[in-house]
Amino acid sequence: MLATPDDLLAFDREHLWHPYTSMTSPTPVRLVTGASGVRLTLGDGSVLVDAMSSWWAAIHGYNHPVLNAALTAQAQDFSHVMFGGLTHEPAIRLAEKLVSLAPRGLEKVFLADSGSVSVEVALKMTLQHQRGQGRAERTRMLTVRGGYHGDTFGCMGVCDPVGGMHSMFASMLPEHVFAPRPPAAAAAAAAVEEWAAAFTALAREHAATLAGIIVEPLLQGAGGMHAYPAACLQVMRDVADELDLVLVFDEIATGFGRTGTLWAADAAGVSPDIMCVGKALTGGYLSLAAVLTTAEIGRGISASESGVLMHGPTYMGNPLACAVALASLELLTSGDWAARVPALEAGLAVGLAGARDLPGVHDVRTLGAVGVVQLDHPVDTVKAADAAAELGVWLRPFRDLIYTMPPYITDDDDLARICAAVTRAAEVA
């Protein structure tokens, strides 16, 4: 019988595997017993301001009455039915909402069960579309260095093969084509032009075998929190059009306002052919993702030899997840996110400015509701998280980055506390 918080943590340490954690020598974890607003209550009674939005998903905070009500109401009707041969109102209304919000032309919706799966589906769509166009030899993707698209095998293939987290699997993955990482967001126009020339030349060189282009638009997430100029997205669109490639935007981390526009694609006025969304889609309540495509892509897939899209997860279109996702999107679009995200960006810029002068700090940058302190060495993640917790903040650093993606409802006082914690973590890590 696991009677106390210590008992629970001891069992966890012995039996549970956490993300990117050793089983034989796991790093410490904290037991959460409650969450409300932007605060997590721990088993020892302490309370932490969540600076991570639970990996960028809980944009409305925790225990939100509107999302709770949507979840409860749907559970009283039915929690799940298979999506093969059946449909239901939550999925239909969610698709209607997504189409109304999406960049122009994206009007077909595939409901997946996680962000990684949505990228897998997008890759399949790209290949099937090319087959439907009679170009079965086009089987590779063009992407950029520094990217991250998930942990499953198709996703790993389009993550950075050298600097990414999956280099040990390189020999088992398809060999895709990797262009240079785009320049930093503040780069001069000449740097963007130089990158554009290299990207275009590489695409033309491999055009005969390329099926599509896949990138995280405007901000690379787990690959390094690297922000780049919106003009690069137009270059990708132009190259895709010139060479008949499918342009895929992975907006799983960047969508729903995180970078300052509803979609990162909006910063360049560019529409992809396929767009993946997830994370904040349900406000952090349940795992759900969606893949949106143009009608042209749909026709291409239908023209392939199978005649159908070859994917169908068991929990595809889960009614509970769809209901809470629709409620989350209604909250987002009826609220003040368009004013709140720039306010968070301004607060992060001011609050993190002092970290620039710390020893070992390589860079400090902000974009929308994202604040990053990059060190010139790997972070001691345990020491950094402990230092933040001493100031009442939950941070989860990785690689050489101490960063925050706070919930949109974070007020000025809590944002100042988060910035102080990020700075303190940078001092000790």
TrEMBL record:
It is found in: Cytoplasm. Its main location: cytoplasm. It comes from the Bacteria. Pathway: Cofactor biosynthesis; biotin biosynthesis; 7,8-diaminononanoate from 8-amino-7-oxononanoate (SAM route): step 1/1. The modification N6-(pyridoxal phosphate)lysine is found at K279. It catalyses: (8S)-8-amino-7-oxononanoate + S-adenosyl-L-methionine = S-adenosyl-4-methylsulfanyl-2-oxobutanoate + (7R,8S)-7,8-diammoniononanoate. Its cofactor is pyridoxal 5'-phosphate. One of its GO terms (molecular function) is adenosylmethionine-8-amino-7-oxononanoate transaminase activity. Transmembrane segments: none annotated. The record marks Y20 as: Participates in the substrate recognition with KAPA and in a stacking interaction with the adenine ring of SAM. Keywords: Aminotransferase, Biotin biosynthesis, Cytoplasm, Pyridoxal phosphate, S-adenosyl-L-methionine, Transferase. Pfam families: Aminotran_3 (PF00202). Pyridoxal 5'-phosphate binds at G115, S116, D250, P313, T314. Its EC number is 2.6.1.62. InterPro entries: Aminotrans_3, Aminotrans_3_PPA_site, BioA, PyrdxlP-dep_Trfase, PyrdxlP-dep_Trfase_major, PyrdxlP-dep_Trfase_small. Homodimer. PANTHER family: ADENOSYLMETHIONINE-8-AMINO-7-OXONONANOATE AMINOTRANSFERASE. Catalyzes the transfer of the alpha-amino group from S-adenosyl-L-methionine (SAM) to 7-keto-8-aminopelargonic acid (KAPA) to form 7,8-diaminopelargonic acid (DAPA). It is the only aminotransferase known to utilize SAM as an amino donor. HAMAP family: BioA (MF_00834). Belongs to the class-III pyridoxal-phosphate-dependent aminotransferase family. BioA subfamily. This is Adenosylmethionine-8-amino-7-oxononanoate aminotransferase. The gene is bioA.
